[in-house]
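Sorry, explain these tokens?

___
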Amino acid sequence: MNLHTDVVAPRESLFASAIVADERARRVQITVGADVVVIAEVAKGSSAARLCFRETVRRLPARDRARLVDDVFELSEVAPGTPLAAVLPVRECDILSHLLVHCADVHTHAAGVTCVVEATVTSAARQGL
């Protein structure tokens, strides 16, 4: 597997964000110390960009999860006008609410413990939140 890693400058809080790429997808991940605590995998599908948020047991503050979403929307796979199909844990209302900042025509539904989101990307730039 061909992996490439770009480390994004550490934020003011105690975590670091990194973008890891292989031939199938790119992954934005947040680490605290040596532990990966949340991952967002982004892949370009045939009809929509696919986005999957996964987290470990450790919870991050809402502002850090919002920064993860901002980092995702800086990737070329989720350019404005791109249809988006995303899945995230149903309890992640912070991630969902920040997705709404970057998307329009949003439709959501629960599938067990997963929230499925279908939308159109409207913004790639940071919103200053």
